[in-house]
Amino acid sequence: MTFSRSRLAAAAILSSTIALAACSREAPEELPPAPQTATPTPSPTPTQAAGPVVGTQGHFEDAVGGSTIVYFDTDRFNIDSTDAAALQAQAQYFSQYPQVNFTVEGHTDERGTREYNLALGERRANSAKNYLVSLGVSPDRIRTVSFGKERPVALGSNPQAWQQNRRAASVVIN
Amino acid sequence: MKTPLISTLFGTLLATSAAAQDLGAPLVEGGEVESVTIEGDEGEGPLRGTVTDESALEDLGIAIPAFATDDNRATPANAQGTAALGREVARVITANLRDNGLFAPTGPDSLPDPSFPQITSPAWGTWSGRGAEMLVHGYVRARDDERLVVGCYLYDVALQDELVREGWVVPPADWRRAAHKCSDLIYARLTGEDPFFDSRIAYIAETGPKDARVKRLAVMDSDGANHRFITLGSATALTPRYSPDYSKILYLSYVDGNPRIYVYDIGSGSQTLVTENANPTLAPRWSPDGRSILYSMAVAGNTDIYRVPVTGGSSTRLTSTPGIDVAGSYSPDGGQIVFESDRSGAQQCYIMNADGSNQRRISFFGGRCATPEWSPRGDQIAFTRIAGDFNVAVMTPAGRNMRVLTDGWQDEAPTWAPNGRIIQFFRTTRNAGNSSLWQVDLTGRNERRLPTPVDASDPAWGPIRP
């Protein structure tokens, strides 16, 4: 259900953008806001249509860079200062695009038992979610899911790989 | 708030198709194996008391020639008829004993075939001349209704006397169960232990690369035969547990995108949520009487253990400390629960009464204690010991006499044989992440890999079948 709702939201954004572009054809009952404030693009590139649109993970990643993911120490779920900075960047993005809902996926490294890691991933996802909520993002926009150790991104069995896998990744629902 | 939405969605899925729930066609399962009167039963009963040979059981020579048949008839169980089937039965029994490090069995392919009358009147000279101390005889007879009668006899060659006999009627598709029942009869008579061969294992079949593993619920007999996939693989499945009567399997599935426990009904091939709740549920376990289910649920990141009747209804929360309380496992009498908790800062094992009272830590050795499983005999708790590597270990319910049984890089999730004498677990390889099922006996000496068609994890050994 959330999927179709956000797809509708994305469609609504797309159609409103189209409506803005074609606003001279039909007189709207209410005047639309000035175009320059409605689309706050960081750089005035003319090829904007080819880039990722709002409501996609690509758009989120372009906006916040590596800050879509926060990392944790072994068996820990606390938000350290690096995580806090990343989550602040996320919160800024999500306040800029209030129509975007997202999932925080909690993950662990492989050096834990399966069931405990499912619970630990859930704890990490909630930790990131709670921090975002404390920064003003509505909890209704944030879904959490734990994948425990089932979805590693780094495939080795070494401390570097494990460090990359102990993470909470924010993913735009589209 | 979300619950009605999910249940509505779930009901719709049920109505539409099993495939939408990642479920394959239901399994066709045989029922109870019926015992029957067999040849020899009209005479004097089998010998009571101990066997003649008191040397180590692994050295006990057992001859297991082909089972005879009174009339070589066609049977759906074997295209070449009941005589060929009798040889197969003896092969299954031989493999059961050999693969589990029990006795010194010799199978039908290197032994003479006894005639049908010799099954109840062995040619003693033939077997003593071959150095066999014990002799297994048996027969297969196809009835007019196609069902098979399988007789099983154990003889002490030195005493020239019978130790035990039993017979079963099975449908042709269940012929291997008769071989397992015969294996159990031999094992129980010679060791004094409870049987374990006629049992099944639920597990997770794994394929694909480490970052995109497909994990399917699968089941097989204790010897790896009759392998079946239950889920199709579009959703990750984890941590199955057979119900005590084999009618259901509890397991975790991501079929709706979230980790949730389902109760899969084997007969109908359909499943229901263990509890109608928006929160993730994990680590399912049955109560010994099959009436209750233990599970863990994460609420706002905090995981506690709950109990719910298998018929549904409201859940009872059993733990409430901050942190992760998970992997609850009942004592065989149902009175206590062993579980793991990180309330002390790291995973350790605890015991509580079944109502959640009197929670106390039992693991005080070095390292961590995870995934505790109470032995069906009640005398031991198997667990994953984390001390650098992950290994399977056992301890008493008081947390004493800890013994590490395996030495892999990552061995985890022990499950007990129905008789509490053997433990299965899964082993993951470093880097590649390949997983496989293994078993080890309580001495730690007899360790072997179980045959599975693909990689495998999360074994769950069910009880002896009826």
Structure commentary:
- The complex is a heterodimer of chains A (174) and B (466).
- By secondary structure, chain A is α+β, with helices and mostly antiparallel strands.
- Helix content of chain A is 44%, strand content 13%.
- Chain A has 6 helices and 4 strands; from the N terminus they run H-H-H-E-H-E-H-E-H-E.
- Chain A has helices at residues 2-21, 35-38, 57-64, 81-96, 114-134, 159-165, and strands at residues 69-71, 102-107, 142-148, 167-172.
- A 4-stranded mixed β-sheet of chain A has the order 1-4-2-3.
- In chain A, strand 2, helix 5 and strand 3 form a beta-alpha-beta unit.
- In chain A, helix 4 crosses helix 5 (114-134).
- The longest helix of chain A is centred in the last third of the chain and has 21 residues, at 114-134.
- Chain A is globular and about 40 Å long.
- Chain A starts with a helix and ends with a strand.
- In chain B, helix 2 (82-99) packs across helix 4 (175-191).
- In chain B, strand 4 and strand 5 form a beta hairpin.
- Chain B has 2 domains: 34-191, Rossmann fold, CATH 3.40.50.10070; 199-464, Neuraminidase (6 Propeller), CATH 2.120.10.30.
- Chain B has a 6-stranded mixed β-sheet, covered by helices on one side. A 4-stranded antiparallel β-sheet of chain B has the order 9-8-7-30, with no helix packed on it.
- Chain B is mainly beta and 466 residues long.
- Classes of the chains: A alpha+beta (174), B mainly beta (466).
